[in-house]
Design a protein that fits this description.
The complex is a heterodimer of chains A (177) and B (343). With 177 residues, chain A is α/β, with parallel strands linked by helices. Chain A has a single domain, classed as ATPase, nucleotide binding domain (Nucleotidyltransferase, domain 5, 2-Layer Sandwich). Chain A contains 3 helices and 9 strands, in the order βββαβαβββββα. Chain A starts with a strand and ends in a 24-residue tail after the last helix. Chain B has 343 residues and is an alpha/beta fold. Chain B has 2 domains: 134 residues, Nucleotidyltransferase, domain 5; 170 residues, ATPase, nucleotide binding domain (Nucleotidyltransferase, domain 5), CATH 3.30.420. In chain B, 44% of the residues lie in helices and 19% in strands. Chain B has 12 helices and 10 strands. In chain B, β4, α3 and β5 form a beta-alpha-beta unit. In chain B, α2 runs parallel beside α3 and α5 crosses α6. The mean pLDDT of chain B is 95. Classes of the chains: A alpha/beta (177), B alpha/beta (343). At the A-B interface, α1 and α2 of A face α2 and α3 of B.
Chain lengths: 177, 343
């Protein structure tokens, strides 16, 4: 029996849950593309009021807009360090719960692009990648990671680095025109 | 609680820095800088800085705890720079501080970066910081402050109207091909130059300026004057230009700092921020403060640039003064005003 604190900030939604062996004991979210910093502390504080004992942290590692994504990962890592408990990272797209066997999920990557991945029989077979929406056929969008699924994925995956999928935009001085 | 144990986190620019203090004793000061990653871009790239912070912050906390020979659970409070600074960079530190404080069940103080720079003096001098005038000069800031209470009452007397002093160093250094960051590069080459070789302008020091903007700074005119000089003088002597440029900045900074001391009747000056590591500024400050009867305090060069010790020091002062911790969830603020010492 492991009580997990699940956190995802890879979309405009900040999601916090407490999950015990597949049972969701607490789940709350806050919508707002620039609210992750403020919302996350609040939501975790609420979660700890009812569930003070946490055995592990599971965090969505993206892909997703960078600033919000980093808030969740930075918070989760420090919380795990403070409690001296393990932390497991999961590809946030893997945690999106879709009730079909063969599908593509996509989330907003800003700049008119999407982060996407293709799944077959519950396994990611392509991606995560970043593309223009027109380049990808038949994706499911307007979906958010499911915290129960995030915790299930954490049993078999561990993503240790944030999934940025893009380089910083800066151009070295020597290459400027 | 007479000697609070405080962990401070600083991520406002390109330094991921963790400090741990007990009361006024510095136990650990760990700094991971991404400055080398920015060098080829000629300045700090926010996205690169933010990525580097996330990479460095946990190992930095771990090594600071080890260096301080404490256990994380012993900490009485966590302090973090809440602003001003690069928003994406600040958020990594604030989120980490939030996670630590909630995980440990300890109070969290979101503090002002500029106030923290002044607070570092608390670690090196036994006398109280206040009342004092503070000259804060770095790559992002150039401000003259009146500090009546470091934990609650700071008044901005003046600030730069355009470039920060450190920014001017970076730009001139880049034009002369001396590299980034410009401060140390110009300081080094200026050692062998003649500071009187070229009479560069002193911004906002005309008689009218002393009436209207006595404690404000402007370095963009100086920057243009140096750039123009370099253009029309193809065989310029780098050392002389560096020394004369540096002299202009140092002269203006000290003229205004001493004027602020004189006008307010506060015979104490603290100089902090990255530019306070400049050897010429330190020498001129010593000389002029001694002459004016002003007690001068400048932190060691390592504590002038961004560091976590200064944030921990301010946190320690907050706890000791009985200030309330930051209530509930809070966000970083890229433009936090210096009057707001804590959130």
């Amino acid at each position: 029996m492991t009580i997990k604190l699940a956190i995802d900030t890879s979309t405009s939604r900040t999601i916090v849950a407490v999950v015990d062996s597949g049972e969701v004991l607490f789940e709350k979210f806050h919508d707002g593309a620039t609210d992750h910093g403020r919302a996350l502390g609040d939501l975790v504080n609420q979660a700890l009021q009812s569930h003070p004992v946490i055995d592990a942290v599971v965090v969505g590692m993206g892909p997703g807009p960078f600033t919000g994504l980093r808030v969740g990962i930075s918070f989760a890592r420090s919380f795990a360090l403070a409690r001296a408990i393990p932390i497991i990272g999961v590809c946030s797209l893997d945690a999106i719960d879709v009730d079909v066997d063969d599908y593509i999920v996509a989330v907003d990557a800003r700049r008119n692009e999407i982060y996407w991945a293709r799944y077959k029989d519950g396994v990611r077979i392509e991606g995560p990648s970043v593309n223009k929406p027109a380049e990808i056929d038949g994706f499911i969008t307007d979906v958010y990671p499911d915290m129960k699924k995030l915790c299930i994925c954490a049993q078999s995956h561990d993503v240790t680095e944030p999934m940025y999928l893009r380089r910083p935009d800066a151009v070295p001085t020597a290459e400027r025109t | 609680m007479s000697e609070p144990l405080v962990l401070g986190i600083e991520t406002s620019c390109d330094e991921t820095a963790i400090g741990i203090v007990r009361g006024r004793t510095l136990l650990a000061n760990v700094i991971a800088s991404s400055v080398e990653e920015h060098a080829r871009f000629g300045g700090v790239v926010p996205e690169i800085a933010s990525r580097a912070h996330l990479e460095a912050i946990l190992p930095s906390i771990e090594s600071a705890v080890k260096e301080a020979k404490i256990s994380l659970n012993d900490i009485d409070a966590v302090a973090v720079t809440a602003g001003p600074g690069l928003i994406g960079a600040l958020l990594v530190g604030v989120a980490s501080a939030n996670g630590l404080a909630l995980g440990l069940g300890k109070p969290l103080y979101g503090v002002n970066h500029l106030a923290a720079h002044v607070s570092v003096d608390f670690l090196t001098h036994l006398q109280p910081i206040e009342p004092t005038i503070a000259l804060l000069v770095s790559g992002g800031h150039s401000s003259l402050l009146q500090v009546d209470d470091i934990t609650s009452s700071i008044t901005k007397l003046g600030a730069t109207m355009d470039d920060a002093a450190g920014e001017a160093f970076d730009k001139i250094s880049r034009i002369m091909g001396l590299g980034f960051p410009g401060g140390p590069a110009i300081d080094r080459i200026a050692q062998s130059g003649d500071a009187k070789a070229i009479d560069f302008p002193r911004g906002l020091t005309q008689a009218a300026d002393w009436q209207t903007r006595p404690y404000d700074f402007s370095f963009s005119g100086l920057k243009s004057a140096v750039a123009r000089y370099l253009e029309v003088t193809p065989d310029y002597a780098k050392a002389d230009v560096a020394a004369s440029f540096q002299e202009s900045i140092v002269d203006v900074l000290m003229l205004k700092a001493i004027a602020a001391c004189t006008a307010t009747g506060i015979n104490s000056l603290v100089i902090a921020g990255g530019v306070a590591a400049n050897s010429r500024l330190r020498a001129v400050a010593q000389e002029r403060c001694a002459k004016a009867g002003i007690s001068l305090r400048i932190p060691s060069p390592g504590l002038c640039t961004d560091n976590g010790a200064m944030v921990a020091a301010l946190g320690s002062l907050m706890v000791t003064a009985g200030r309330a911790p930051t209530e509930g969830a809070f966000d970083a603020s890229s433009s936090l005003q210096v009057e707001q010492v804590s959130l």
